[in-house]
Amino acid sequence: MDKIKFIIKNDFISADSTIEIVNPFSGKAVKKVCKAEDTHIQQSLDYLVSVFQKYRKTPAYLKSELLQIVTSKIRQKKEELAQLLTLETGKPIKLSRVEIDRAIFTFQTGAEEARRIDGEVIRIDQLRGAEGKTGIIKRFPTGVILAITPWNFPVNLVAHKLSPALASGNVVLLKPASASLCCGIEIVKIIKEASEEAGLDYCPVNVVTSSGSEIEKFINDSRIKMVSFTGSPAVGWPMKRKLDMQKISLELGGNAGVIVDETADIKASALKIAAGAFANAGQSCISVQRVFVHKNIYSEFEKLLLEETKKIKFGNPFEEDTLVGPMINEGEAKRVEQWLKESDGKILTGGKRNGAIFEPTIVSGAGKNCDINAKEVFAPLMTINKFDDFQKAVEEVDDSEFGLQAGIFTNNLQNALYAFENIEAGGVIVNDVATFRMDSMPYGGAKKSGIGKEGIKYAIEEMTERKILVL
């Protein structure tokens, strides 16, 4: 098995130490990646500080051209990248292809937004003594951004860091998750090639394969101006406390709630909720986890939901019709198995584990303090409960330490607006699941779910600083 190199400065770097990537379905090592050391991180930061002075002055059309080339190259390699994604993480192949399509869109949008980073002109002469003065506001790139990405969307969430950063004139040190290093390296390899084609004599992105604990030693390094982290709250919030003067964006966990009221299209909502809970083995921070159904439609809804769930194929992620592949490793599947045993709910379907495969599972009547309700389950498991008062259902959804996204199925506009006003979350999705995300929309949570927004235009705002010129 050849060793895969990482990228420091403008070069591919080898190392004696390696990391094995294990496919969670087969349990076999499928890739061997060179492991970066502290000296590599030091070299990268020095290099990125120096090239930032060049890249920040790059005209908008050239930044846009660079991202357009990246977009085209990913499109050309779509199937190759999808196969790699499934090989590393066990994501079902049809979902891997969807993820690559989303990454193409994310980079394409960055190419467009690079041309639209506007400033503004404001009136300054609003008090005596300020006559004849005008303010011109322009956005400037922050500098070196440390981007730390997870394994559950190892291509598109890398794109969500790199696309807005490059569009706005920043440079990036990327640290992909240890379970999906190859996906991150491949995207940076594409950026390196695109940089050469765009006429740059440097690569504005480096990628290291250090462990999380090793990279954390550098998060308050003065050369790093911003940390953009997607991962668990247990890692993200302590990381924030370690920072000195760096900016930070945190995209963390959730335990998304969905309400189905008595005016909803029951069949459509059951179909969408089953997919939103179980696709990708529920390993998404906006995967449907808690479902609240009006008592008048509960029986019919439960029947339809069970029918849809039993149609779902789970198992081998390389088979075209698989929707639920393995969890990222057997240890995670065992955790969910234990949480389920400790709950006080009734298993309506599923509940069995085979290695890293966990069956799509529905539990009714579980108390709100059970781990499968109160914590982020991050697995193909949902809970379902009845309600008789819509406002109380909204309170139940909001009664969580997380607040990323929520969903509501209704044909009652008043209910939709009430949910929007009273659920403390980054987004409320009407007549679709909390799992819905368009990559151009503002995306980010409240409470323990994080701070800052993604979505290319909105991430550019996070990654730049306003400066005013007073004339």
State the gist of this model.
Helices cover about 40% and strands about 25% of the residues. It is built from 15 helices and 25 strands.
Descriptive report:
The protein has 471 residues and is of the alpha/beta class. The strands form seven sheets. A seven-stranded mixed β-sheet has the order 15-18-19-14-13-21-22, sandwiched between helices. Strands 10-9-8-11-12-24 form a six-stranded mixed β-sheet, sandwiched between helices. It has a three-stranded mixed β-sheet with strand order 1-5-4, with helices on one face. α2 (60-76) packs antiparallel against α4 (93-113) and α2 crosses α6. The relative contact order is 0.14. The chain has two domains: 3-252 and 449-470, Aldehyde Dehydrogenase, Chain A, domain 1, CATH 3.40.605; 257-438, Aldehyde Dehydrogenase, Chain A, domain 2 (3-Layer(aba) Sandwich), CATH 3.40.309.10. β18, α12 and β19 form a beta-alpha-beta unit. The termini are far apart. The chain has 15 helices and 25 strands. It is globular.
CATH architecture of the largest domain: 3-Layer(aba) Sandwich
CATH topology of the largest domain: Aldehyde Dehydrogenase, Chain A, domain 1
Structural class: alpha/beta
> In CATH, what is the class of the largest domain?
Alpha Beta
Count of discrete domains = 2
Largest sheet: 7 strands, mixed
Treating each run of at least 4 consecutive H or I residues as one helix, how many helices?
15
Ranges where pLDDT stays below 50 over 5 or more residues in a row are: none
Portion of residues in helices? 25-40%
Strands of the largest sheet, in order across it?
15-18-19-14-13-21-22
Overall average residue pLDDT: 97
Give the terminus-to-terminus CA distance.
63 Å
Rounded Rg: 23 Å
CATH superfamily of the largest domain: Aldehyde Dehydrogenase, Chain A, domain 1
Bin the strand percentage: 15-25%
Count of DSSP E strands?
25
- Taken from the alpha-carbon principal axes, the silhouette is globular
